[in-house]
Each structure stands twice: as structure tokens, then as C-alpha cells.
Write a structure and sequence with these properties.
With 310 residues, the chain is mainly α. Helix content is 48%, strand content 0%.
Length: 310
């Protein structure tokens, strides 16, 4: 299928890059763990389970797929740019708003990509735009999109996160998403989260394509441009139909899509033929006038002036 005719092209899905990863040359010591999530991940790593499909109940914190992670400075810059774009919902970040401390810690190995993402979501930049300035439901659905790369699957997920945020705080809710088995399995420690609901990912219904399309709109727009109210609340709660505001096609796309069998529309063909006839007549007149002047006859010089009424 032509990319211009793809339903995902209109939402910007095909304009996004694939997953990007970075592994610091210096990694934190694995001798001790500071959190329960680190303990669970280390325990699963110590089981020597093979990579690939497996029973999730056996160890849900095991990474089942890996993307080869670069270790050079170019890979680092790609990861940082992708993390800002994904976590901050495509918002423009000024130089003074960048998380320079987190970037330095990622570069020297004190942080992995997962913890770098965690730090960005907990930053003042994120909290002021996607937590304090939006409704609770909107903040939850954006957190799922930015951290897990998908919309909430049910109203129960939204309600559970709202309850956790009310009792334990915003940072505890973010930790529960970043340290979840789903995040560990899909992104691991070295891959930046990315929007993945445009494809038929495991455990997701086809409705999630509609939900992410309603949230995403297009690659160039910012998540802040959609307002502070929830987009998915009525759909998740009652199953109501979601309205997707597809951006209008550019003029060149409308024109190209109107061609059929490599032939232009009838009106364009008539216009082209008319212009070709007029141009040919004009060139023929110039040629005749030049030949007449070469033969010493200048009587044709008045013809253009006669047409202009001079």
C-alpha cells in the first residue's frame, strides 16, 4: 500500500522512528538492590530463563526481547532526543528547561535509560504541564501514553492509578508504571518508550488503535494542544464512540490521490492541452518573425502591437 494512502500515515505513525536504545559503558553495581523492583528484576535475571515467549506467571519481570543498544555518543544523543519527545508529549523544550543533571548521570553510567525516563516524568517540567494543569483522568491517560506507549486498557486502570495517586502521591504512581512488569518486558533498561498501540500488540484489543489515534492526532502536534480534559473517559467508562479528528490532507496529497491509473483528472488534462496549444502558437509566431527578419522583411514586427491595440 502506498504510504500516502495508509490510515496510519494521517496520524503520523509512519513518521516516527523505531525504538532507540543506549547502554552506558559504566553500569551500576548489581551486587545490591535499593528497591523491590530492582530485587524482582535481579531475581528474574538470576533464573537463567531463555529469551522469547514464556509463561508470564513464571517471572513477569523478565525482559523477553532485546534491542541491540549502542554505546557511542550518537546513540546517546538519539536516546535523549527521543526521550524528551516521548515523555514530554512532543512539547518544545528550551535549553534552560532541559534536565542537564539527568543527562550527565545517563552519560556517565549512573542512570540507565529507564531511570532517565523516570526522572523526566517526575521533573517540574512534566508535573506543571501534565499533572497540575490537567484533570486527573487526563493526567493518567497521558502518563500511560508517555511511559508505557499505550492508552489505558480499561476504566479500572484509570481508577486504580487515581486512587494510588491520591493516597501515595504522584511519584509513587509513576514508579508503579516504570517498575511494572509490562515496562520491563517491553522496553527493558535501555530502550526509550514509544507509542506502540498502532500495531496489534499482545494483550491489547483493536480498540486501542482508535484510542491512541484519538490521543495522538499527528506527529507534529503537542499533547498540550488537546486541552486539559480527558479524551478517553467516556469511551472507557461506557463504551461510547470516540471521535477522531483527522487532520486535513495537504493540497498536494488531495491532488495526487485524485489521479487514477497514472492519468490526471479530466479538468487538469483539458487545462494542460489548452496551455500547450497556446504555447505552441506563441513559439511558432516567434519563429516566423525571426525567419522574416533574417530575410530582410520587417512587416511582421507590428503584429504583436496590433494584438495589444497599440
Amino acid at each position: 500500500m502506498n504510504a500516502s494512502l495508509s490510515p496510519k500515515f494521517r496520524f503520523g505513525a509512519e513518521s516516527k522512528n523505531g525504538p532507540v536504545s543506549f547502554a552506558a559503558s559504566q553500569t551500576k553495581s548489581a551486587m545490591s538492590t535499593l528497591t523491590n523492583a530492582d530485587f524482582l528484576r535481579n531475581s528474574c535475571s538470576g533464573m537463567s530463563l531463555p529469551f522469547g515467549p514464556r509463561d508470564h506467571s513464571e517471572c513477569p519481570h523478565r525482559v523477553t526481547s532485546r534491542v541491540l543498544a549502542g554505546t557511542d555518543s550518537d546513540s546517546l544523543e538519539q536516546v535523549i532526543d527521543a526521550a524528551y519527545r516521548q515523555v514530554f508529549g512532543n512539547c518544545h523544550v528550551m535549553e534552560q528547561e532541559r534536565a542537564s543533571v539527568l543527562e550527565a548521570q545517563l552519560k556517565d553510567g549512573r542512570l540507565c535509560v529507564r531511570d532517565f525516563v523516570r526522572g523526566l516524568v517526575k521533573s517540574d517540567f512534566y508535573r506543571s504541564r501534565f499533572y497540575e494543569a490537567v484533570s486527573p483522568s487526563r493526567g493518567i491517560e497521558l502518563a500511560f501514553k508517555h511511559v508505557l506507549g499505550r492508552p489505558p486498557l480499561s476504566q479500572n486502570e484509570v481508577s486504580g492509578c487515581i486512587e494510588q495517586r491520591a493516597h501515595e502521591g504522584f511519584e509513587a504512581m509513576i514508579d508503579s508504571l516504570v517498575d511494572s512488569p509490562e515496562y520491563t518486558e517491553v522496553f527493558g533498561a535501555d530502550t526509550v518508550p514509544y507509542v506502540r498501540a498502532f500495531t496489534s500488540a499482545g494483550g491489547m484489543s483493536m480498540m486501542n488503535f482508535v484510542r491512541i489515534a484519538a490521543m495522538e492526532q499527528n506527529f507534529a502536534s503537542s499533547d498540550r494542544s488537546r486541552g486539559s480534559d480527558s479524551i478517553l473517559q467516556s469511551n472507557l467508562a461506557s463504551g461510547s464512540v470516540l471521535k477522531i479528528n483527522v487532520p486535513q490532507s495537504p493540497l498536494y496529497m488531495k491532488t495526487s490521490m485524485s489521479w487514477s491509473g497514472n492519468n490526471p483528472p479530466a479538468n487538469y488534462e483539458k487545462l494542460w492541452r489548452g496551455l500547450a496549444i497556446v504555447g505552441a502558437a506563441h513559439l511558432a509566431g516567434m519563429l516566423v518573425n525571426i525567419m522574416a527578419q533574417m530575410l530582410g522583411y520587417n512587416g511582421l514586427d507590428r503584429i504583436p502591437a496590433m494584438f495589444l491595440g497599440l
